[in-house]
């Protein structure tokens, strides 16, 4: 059984899916009379974990693992002292390199891992109308699945499985910086559409976009390809593999 203690949920959301799940988890816990606080990983300089609080971590899958900004957050977490922690991630199809490695990292810090669940949701790289429609259906199903997951945490039925060899190998792929640079280099800017409103610069979670020589420029060595700029640009001026995406705006950009 999950003790009736307050919960802090730290989340990172590139384009909104993960925020939807984090909010739904909060809503379902609150129906069961838990006090829940949501906090953004992207603005967490000093990580504060009040005594006697459970910890939740909700993040997106990227390159079969998750973004460097998330792993940096995990590295900076204080010692767990057997604090209960649960985990959720959002993905398009498959992960492999996050659930197991996340458990390994948290247990090494002294946390007690009580449950993990993965939710298939809309891709942040919607290049066809078919993908966009499939994504809407997946999101509805995922949010319904959240209720079962939270109940399993409360009842003590939740599991957090780990397959050491496979998951550690998948995590290793995403550790190097080169694969993130290569992914980022697929993102471009259509200067004929860009109005230099600088929204992308303001809301980039890793400050990888700046106005340089009268143009917005992506610093690919710094970018993590979270797709926030691609999906929320007011002019849809960003391209992915030289194609404009069908933007997915499931929340307001200032809420991410």
Automatic annotation (TrEMBL):
Necessary cofactors: [4Fe-4S] cluster
Keywords associated with the record: 4Fe-4S, Iron, Iron-sulfur, Metal-binding
GO MF annotation: an example: 4 iron, 4 sulfur cluster binding
InterPro entries: 4Fe4S_Fe-S-bd (IPR017896), 4Fe4S_Fe_S_CS (IPR017900), EFR1-like (IPR047964), Flavodoxin_CS (IPR001226), Flavoprotein-like_sf (IPR029039), PSI_iron-sulfur_center (IPR050157)
Residue ranges occupied by any 4Fe-4S ferredoxin-type domain in the UniProt entry: 185-214, 215-243
PANTHER family: PHOTOSYSTEM I IRON-SULFUR CENTER, PHOTOSYSTEM I IRON-SULFUR CENTER-RELATED
Function noted in UniProt: Ferredoxins are iron-sulfur proteins that transfer electrons in a wide variety of metabolic reactions.
Protein name listed in UniProt: Ferredoxin
Gene source species: Ruminiclostridium papyrosolvens DSM 2782
